[in-house]
Design goal:
With 510 residues, the protein is an alpha+beta fold. It is built from 15 helices and 21 strands. The strands form 5 sheets. Strands 5-4-14-15-16-13-17 form a 7-stranded mixed sheet. A 6-stranded mixed sheet has the order 7-2-1-11-20-19. A 3-stranded antiparallel sheet has the order 8-9-10, with no helix packed on it. Pfam families: Trp_halogenase. InterPro entries: Flavin-dep_Halogenase_NPB (IPR050816), Flavin_halogenase (IPR006905), Trp_halogen (IPR033856). This is Tryptophan 7-halogenase.
Length: 510
């Protein structure tokens, strides 16, 4: 019996940067030089956005999947560690909270410390929720170790991600991919040809070279050259919920050792980020141009940058949302070509990885069966929308009314998918888990608590727990976490001793 399949013999990735080279690395590692040829087309003359420098823990799963040594990688990309995000001035000016990675480190009956804490608070207990999160205590004390290196201590309840230099990461993954057979072609795509059925047939470079393939991955950034300009796939605009539409970005020196967290500091028209690497920090201001000009945004950023600029600032206009279809015909869109959610929770690189993970699960033959395409698009849309809702929640729960920007946010109508989730939480702290499980209950509990959102009651099953000695038990648990944390090296010392990139002054051996 003849095999009806037409296997993919060649995949062309159009565009480099983080999206292109993550795609190339994952394809080359999984194909092992046997499944299909991989060619990546990019031009040094086309700049990349390059500000996706903060990650979340699943990024490290990608490194493991690629067989990349984490220590070596961090040295190459001047990386530092990230235990969570510190949010300043989001609920009200002068208040801050932490979204930690990991889980709460005090074991309790029923397994949900948050519910036990809610009951304890209802009975007069005063200790804060984040005192039970090892990642939060480490972050506050500027301490770090790899949690899996302390398996029988409270530190093991923490998790971590990394801060990276995006351009250095792209160069690292380029070397990785080329060593596994990926062909890099330098050139600017000027035209795209299509088959009669609408599938992309080839890309034609400015110098006339023609590159044919069976499948194309669009990593051309906001230009979306294949998915939008060629195939005409539209865009779901989410700017009615996420008002920011511009960012100014900058790189500055580190006057002090980098802290193990990303800073998200709310401003009068958006928020500023600080992502500390070993040798410099990435800083930026995500803002709404109806409330702030480019010059005003840059002035605000420079005032708060806490370091000297090492490059000229650049402006990034954007529209928050995603493609109506991330995969259409024989074109898959990744990164900014597929969608953009402002970097408040550092999800850009995760969505690239997820996009490739699901493509490899649903990988088609050259005919691209519509069933696979539909399943992929539904699954990835769920991820995008869950991340969208989690980011919107930081804004929607604000209590700020100090200017027109924050008043507009307070008065906006949330997506039903988010408002119903918050209504559920307000009953007794129940969290509706998502399909990705990237932001688990601890994330929602930490952010909602930080934003002042309180359940009306605790879960009824918590009443079965004997609470006679519970306050003392909780105090002992928090004390054990703090004692373990204070025995750790500082984040700067850990970087110097384990994954030093050459060599700012603060990293020099003592």
């Amino acid at each position: 019996m003849d095999d009806p399949r037409r296997p993919i013999k060649k995949i062309c990735i159009v565009g480099g940067g983080s999206a292109g080279w993550i795609a190339a690395a994952l394809l080359s590692e999984h194909f092992k030089g046997k499944v299909a040829e991989i060619e990546l087309v990019e031009s040094d003359d086309i700049g990349i956005v390059g500000v996706g420098e903060s990650t979340i823990p699943p990024f490290l799963q990608m490194l493991t999947r690629l067989g990349i040594n984490e220590q070596e990688f961090l040295q190459e990309v001047q990386g530092s560690f990230k235990l969570g995000i510190l949010f300043k001035d989001w609920k009200l000016k002068g208040e801050e909270y932490i979204h930690p990675f990991g889980y709460f480190g005090v074991p309790v009956e029923l397994g949900d410390l948050y519910q036990v804490w809610l009951r304890a608070r209802a009975e007069g207990y005063t200790r804060g929720l984040q005192e039970f999160a090892a990642a939060s205590v480490m972050l506050n004390e500027d301490r770090f170790t790899l949690p899996f290196k302390a398996p029988r201590t409270p530190i093991a309840s923490a998790s971590y991600a990394v801060h990276i230099d995006a351009r250095k990461m792209a160069r690292y993954l380029r070397r990785f991919s080329e060593a596994r057979g990926v062909t890099r072609t330098e050139g600017i795509v000027e035209n795209v040809t299509q088959h009669p059925n609408g599938f992309v047939e080839s890309v034609i470079l400015k110098d006339g070279r023609r590159i044919e393939a069976d499948f194309f991955i669009d990593c051309t950034g906001f230009r979306a050259l294949l998915i939008n300009k060629t195939l005409g796939v539209g865009y779901h605009d989410w700017s009615q919920w996420l008002l920011s539409n511009r960012a100014v970005a900058l790189q500055v020196t580190n006057p002090t050792p980098p802290g193990p967290y990303t800073l998200a500091h709310a401003q009068d028209a958006g928020w500023c980020w600080r992502i500390p690497l070993q040798q410099r920090s990435g800083v930026g201001y995500v803002f709404c141009d109806r409330y702030c000009s480019d010059d005003e945004a840059l002035a605000t950023l420079l005032k708060q940058a806490d370091g000297e600029p090492v490059v000229d600032p650049w402006i990034i206009p954007f529209k928050t949302g995603m493609r109506e279809k991330l995969w259409d015909k024989n074109v898959l869109s990744l990164g900014l070509a597929g969608g953009f959610i402002e970097p408040l929770e550092s999800t850009a690189l995760h969505l690239i990885y997820r996009g490739m993970d699901f493509f490899l699960r649903f990988m088609p033959d050259a005919d691209c069966d519509p069933v696979l395409i539909t399943e992929y698009n539904q699954r990835m849309t769920q991820d995008y929308e869950e991340i969208r809702d989690f980011v919107i929640m930081h804004y929607a729960m604000t209590q700020r009314e100090d200017n027109a920007y924050w008043r507009e946010i307070r008065n906006m109508e949330m997506p039903e998918s988010l408002s119903s989730k918050i209504d559920l939480f307000k009953v007794n702290g129940t969290i509706r888990e998502g399909v990705d499980l990237m932001f688990r209950s601890v994330s929602w509990q930490s952010v909602l608590e930080g934003m002042g959102v309180k359940p009306r009651a605790y879960h009824p099953l918590t009443d079965r727990i004997d609470f006679t000695d519970m306050p003392r038990y909780l105090d002992q648990g928090a004390a054990a976490i703090r004692h373990a944390v204070l025995g750790l090296p500082t984040h700067g010392d850990f970087l110097r001793d384990h994954c030093t990139a050459p060599s700012p002054e603060w990293l020099a051996p003592v």
